[in-house]
Each structure stands twice: as structure tokens, then as C-alpha cells.
């Protein structure tokens, strides 16, 4: 395949890569995206669907929120359960009116892909980036395979938005970063079901059988999760058993869970991961390429979009003001929010999962936290402001 030339070469058409391409275009900066999976695969990959206020505002400002605002559901609070007792955290009054919106991640990917092609944007699916070269100097290039032929994308900068398994992070010089990771001793079994949600807002629950979460996708589709062991297998979980367990774990007095046909079922391990440097020369990492958080705080996509914001600030500084200052401090700025999200995601994960035998020391610490949230506006505010996302002007 021919060589291509652009200003910013982007690897990966997940939320990070697509958002970056659109945002750069808004500033008149050209980019080309290489994605090794097919369009169908990427736009049907089921993942979390919680958007912070910042993220919704960004898509609104980019003119990409038409369907999101129509089909997404704005939530003004969240329910927390512990041993069958339920409390509610009201976002509005604790965070000066900031909220979250529930909208499936694959819907965002679909919207951004369609809009990118409609704008005449270049995005090659089934194009695998194989090597990144020259990023220590001023003329980097990305080698890739497309339709059985080798191609080269020459650019001023490379944005590796290529997820946890991508080549971006592996290409950074070994001594330029440290990696930190924790694997949790449990996984999430997630389902999508054709049934009206049994709740108007999300429910996170600790139960002696383990964690459960009730989320939703629309008036007719529910999204739910339960904690399972890491070595558990989906074949052990009939639909009947899943609903029964969800009903037990989410249960509270006077409330019932509606069951319905399950059309998607999968188990995902839980881990925290991050690198303490996300750039070298003209190579930059964004999104899952640089960090993974357990989904309990709903931060994954939002962090990816926040990285992109800082990266866009950097590229705008370079192309419009001839300054490398913002790009040079990209990692340092992005890492503050990443650390915050790591802490909050770990907090939510350890608060609501069964980690030890029910009634242990750890259990009592979890319960003490939950009881405190219920009586302290200060503690509830801490959770609310992290959950809806801290504004960019403050953080
Ligand atoms: N060449 C081209 N594309 C690649 C390559 C490669 N060598 N390696 C990986 N990719 C693609 C993947 O196929 C994937 O579509 O990069 C994309 C990365 O997208 P995501 O994994 O969705 O990551 P990101 O855009 O950072 O989005 C973060 O995804 O995992 C969730 O919770 C996470 O919500 C968060 C979001
Ligand atoms: C989801 O809707 O998929 C979802 C919501 C909140 C989470 C995780 C996943 O914390």
C-alpha cells in the first residue's frame, strides 16, 4: 500500500483514538486512524456505559452528542446497598448540579465512526500497526499491514490510542517508565437482557454472596453484573442462576428485580494498571494504552477522554502557538487525574466486593465506611464528586 502522510498518526479506533481525531479536526489539525479490527467488531464490543459530565460536555461541544442526548439517560443520583440496606447519593445537591449519563460505549464508537466518515475522515479498519519508528526525532512513522500489503503512515506525532494490548506502550524505551498493577481476586460476570430496568438509577451492592451492580441501557434493556471467582466459567451460570443471584444480592425491602431474556453474557477480570510516563519524544499514549481501572467507578472511558483533552491542548499549542510546552507536560498533567481515578476505582471496588469471609475485619471496615456515607454529607460529597468527575478547571 502507498505511503500516507498526516500531522497526527493515530493507532486505534476506540473512544480515545476517535475522540482525538474529531477534536483535532475541530482545530484544523489533520489525522489518520489505523485500527486492526473490523468496523463491525469494534462497534459491537460491549463495555461499560457511564459518562461523566465532562465527557458529555466534550461530545456536545464537538457536535457529536445528538444521539447520546436523545438515547442516553441522565442520572441525578446513585443507590448504594450494603447487606440489604439501601441509601441514595444525590449528585445534584452535592456537586452543584453535575450528573452522569448512561450510554453504551459501543454506541459512542458507532456515532464517532459514522461522523468521522461523514466528514471525509481517513480511518482504515483491519489495518494493523506493526512498528513505530523515528519518534525520538521529528519525523516519526507507523508501519502497518493493510489488505495483505505493507504501508507507512508518516506524521509529525504518533498518538498510541491502541488499548492495553497495543504496540504504543511496548515501543516506549524500557527505562522511560515504570508500570504498576494489581489484579483483583475476582471478576465480573456481565449481562445484557431484554427487560425493563428495575431501577431508575444505578444500584451498587455489597452482599455476603458478593458484589452486584444494576445498570441499564434503555427503557427495555438492562445491564447487570455480579462478582464471580477468577477461575469461574460462564458455563456454570445458567440464566436462571444469574437472575436468582442478582435478586438476592441486590435485594432490599419492598423492591423486586424483573428478570428477562439474556442476550449477552461474559466474564471480565478486574485489574488496576498504569504507567507513570505516557510519552517519549513524539510518541504519546492515551486511554487504555496507558491505564486500566476496575470498572466499579465507571471511569475507563472518561479517563481516556480526559487524556485526549490534554493531548489536544498540547497539539493546539504546537500547531497554533508553535510551542511544545503543553505537549512536554502532557503526562504530568494527565497523571493527576489518572491517580485520582485509580484511587476512586479502588475505593469503590474494595468497598462493594466480598474480599474476605463475611464478618471478617475487612468486612467490618467496609460496613463502617458504608454506614458513614449514610450519615455524613462530607463523605457522600467526596463520593459524588469523584463519581460525576472533577471539573477540568479545578483538576
Ligand atoms: N494496530 C491498530 N489498532 C490497534 C492495534 C494495532 N497494533 N492494537 C490495538 N489496536 C486497537 C484495538 O483493536 C482497539 O480497537 O486499538 C483500539 C483501542 O481501543 P480501546 O481498547 O477501546 O481503548 P481506548 O480507546 O483507550 O478506550 C478506553 O475502553 O476498555 C475500555 O474501559 C475502557 O472505556 C475505556 C475505553
Ligand atoms: C455499565 O453500565 O456498563 C456500568 C455502569 C457503571 C459501572 C460499570 C459499568 O461502574
Briefly summarize what is shown.
The protein has 395 residues and is an alpha/beta fold.
Topology of helices and strands:
Blueprint: E1 3-5, E2 8-11, H1 15-26, E3 31-34, H2 39-44, E4 50-52, H3 53-61, H4 66-71, E5 73-75, E6 77-82, E7 85-90, H5 91-94, E8 100-102, H6 105-118, E9 122-124, E10 127-133, E11 141-146, E12 149-154, E13 157-160, H7 168-171, E14 179-193, E15 203-206, E16 212-216, E17 222-228, H8 239-250, E18 262-275, E19 279-280, E20 283-285, E21 291-292, H9 300-321, H10 325-328, H11 330-352, H12 361-375, H13 377-388
Parallel strand pairs: 1-12, 2-3, 2-13, 3-9, 6-15, 13-20
Antiparallel strand pairs: 4-8, 5-8, 6-7, 10-11, 11-12, 14-17, 14-18, 15-16, 16-17, 18-21, 19-20
Helix pairs in contact: 1-6, 1-9, 9-11, 12-13
The protein binds adenosine-5-diphosphoribose and P-hydroxybenzoic acid.
